[in-house]
Design a protein that fits this description.
heterodimer; A: mainly alpha; B: Beta-Lactamase; Heat Shock Protein 90; 2 domains; 5-stranded mixed beta sheet; 12 helices; 20% strand; elongated
Chain lengths: 493, 395
Amino acid sequence: MSQTYAVVAVTVVVLATVLIGGFGLRISRTTSDFYVASRTVGPRLNAAAISGEYLSAASFLGIAGLVLVHGPDMLWYPVGYTAGYLVLLLFVAAPLRRSGAYTLPDFAEGRLESQAVRRLVSVFVIGAGWLYLVPQLQGAGLTLAILTGAPDWLGPAVVATVVVLAVAAGGMRSITFVQAFQYWLKLTALLVPALFLVLAWQDDGRPSVPAGFPAGVPALSIANSLGRADHPLYATYGLIVATFLGTMGLPHVVVRFYTSPDGRSARRTTVVVLALIGGFYLLPPVYGALGRLYASELSLTGDADATVLLLPDRMIGGVGGDLLGALVAGGAFAAFLSTASGLTMAVAGVLTQESRGVRHFRLATLLAMAIPLAGALLTTGVPVADAVGMAFAVSASSFCPLLVLGIWWRRLTPPGAVAGLLLGGGSALIAVSVTMSGAVPPGWPHTLLAWPAVWSVPVGFLAMVLVSLATPARIPPGTHAAMTRFHLPEALR
Amino acid sequence: MSGEAAAALIVLGPLLLAGGFVLGRRTRPTRTSDVGTPVERATFETLHTASLAAPPLRAGLTEESARKAARRLRTLLGTDALCLTDGEKVLAWDGTGDHHSGQLMDQVAGLLDTGRDKAFPTACDDLDCPLRWAVAVPLTVDHRVLGSLVAYAPRESAVLARAAGEVARWVSVQLELAELDRSRTQLIEAEIKALRAQISPHFIFNSLAAIASFVRTDPERARELLLEFADFTRYSFRRRGDFTTLADELHSIDQYLALVRARFGARLTVTLQVAPEVLPVALPFLCLQPLVENAVKHGLEGAVTRSRITISALDAGAEAEVVIEDDGTGMDPERLRSILRGEGGDSSGIGLLNVDERLRQVYGDAYGLVIDTGAGAGMKVTVRIPKYRAGVHGS
């Protein structure tokens, strides 16, 4: 594959991101523009921005890789990533917006009137954010290594530097437009090559995709190390619970809902997000299936995540293949940049709010990026989509009980919330950390720890409910007012 | 593998951070034995306990504040039981023997009327009850008796009576401070109301005059301006809620500027830059409009023929940053300082001072106005607004 095209594509994406971020403000000089400039973000623009931020390296590269290695079972990933928004729409979107909270710690403080819960939630937000950032950076390393033969550390370093410079230098003055642009870029970067690939497949006489494992998969491929092959059904349930319930707590997703002017538009935004994301997720499985036909050896080398990047070259070749490959590479980099910058801003926001030492947003940005960067450089071997799944599991076991019970249950108390967060979220966090450290023997222990959501989510809910019921005296005095604000449409107040 | 172990460390990072944070907060500077004589140490202990009891009392005399304070006060007095009452009921009982609380209000009734200390035997039927004697001291604010502090002991004790009297006086001072806080808040609320009422006289007169000048030459424009005027006044005289959203505030500023332009025409150029993310931010009602009014006034003051005003609202992490800049006459920094200290006395700074105080009141002292100016150098006012603050909801 020609390196030049790919490097040019990546550079163009980076430049476009920085330029739109810096100049995407609405500026008016005449009276009539004034109204336009001060109009709030509509559901469609905001939905594109949310989707742009949400579709990460796991979606862009990871799903195709998993389908290539494990076959159609892995379609639960895109289903889960999308269905999470359905749960968000039904239970959380509008009340969360009406609560006026900018971050999850804000929500916890507003609902439970407790600084202790606020601090604990902040710790989890930062933890989940870091956990989510690591695979983004690793994906960038993989992409750059495959495209240009650069060393593994270069990709993470490039993404980290661009994000820190853009965010810390105040370059991301209007993140909404950047993220909306990134969504359409990612969609184009997968859709256009996919059309050509399908045409090439038809020219090839439409060979059928093998349903089972591709020949010669070694007994210990990477994904096996995560215990999926031991107990595939349990692993699938773990994935379903984590992704369905984890989306609502992702720090960069929550922050974006603040941009909606009211609860109603937050709900409409979520509906549009469902459509945009649902459309996007039709594409990665196509790559996965074609990858089984034309690049099946990738499952042997452990580079399955690169399927999307390599297919255009494999199937089409020549200048056309190079151009399509460059387009895909640009899309992949857009995926790293958008998710990484969204997460970095969310984590940095929480860091500045919480710690008195980190007063400045720029310093916080550096800190928010430095730790996952170190993590990305030190860990290897966990597939991108699986690592993201772990962040979802932590989010599902800590923030989901907090949000759902906080919004729908009047008897939640601060001690209950603390217990649920510590037992549910804490156990998930520890399980995931232990898995990543690789110190667990294979078999059931490994499977249980690698897919903790099945047990840790019920633990979180139970602890929250039981401890709350045991401490009825601690129900915050403002519960009634908070509930009214969450559930009454703005027009009726 | 060392790499993977390091990874585990990184993932555990948040937990470690949290642990360190908690530890850091828990561990106070150690009071080691080399600090002073026993007497001095006792004094430090006492002062420390007293300082712990102060914050709850600063919220006034309520059941919650009394509950929190009673615990500390009992440690301070070293009694078996301590009770705080207001004029009508027992607010908090700390220590043993709370079966006494039933008859307590009758026992202190006289004290609440006269405001004089009272010592009395508890006359308890329970022979095992250690509380045999009590001293009740009034809590007074401005010579009014708000409630009482009652300390119980196994036997009569002149020391306890004296100590209880001193503690009650100290509590009274805290309650007086609480009263002071409350009246300061009321004053600021009154100022906000006053500012709402103040907005208009000159402005209404000038606007109407400007509109009148269009009635014959351009009736359509006059009609539009009247509608803007109606909208603007409706917003400014709104009664409900102390907070609004940045979008609404900018909308009102737009109407205000339309009316100003009717008067000054091409002499005034206004540029607006908005990051749409910050439009839903909640902020105190009418806290930007006075700043724009100020910029207009400075911009068009004196010999300046043309003026340019820039208003920008940018996204800065967990905060929104609003900057209002004009290229007008500016102001001598010393004069501005004295205005912001409340010593100015001239009308042009009242708006600035009021906005500054309200922002500090709502968000804390870190969020006051930041003003860059010099004589003849224009003025740049920066306002930072947190995106979320408990109790601040735009409606």
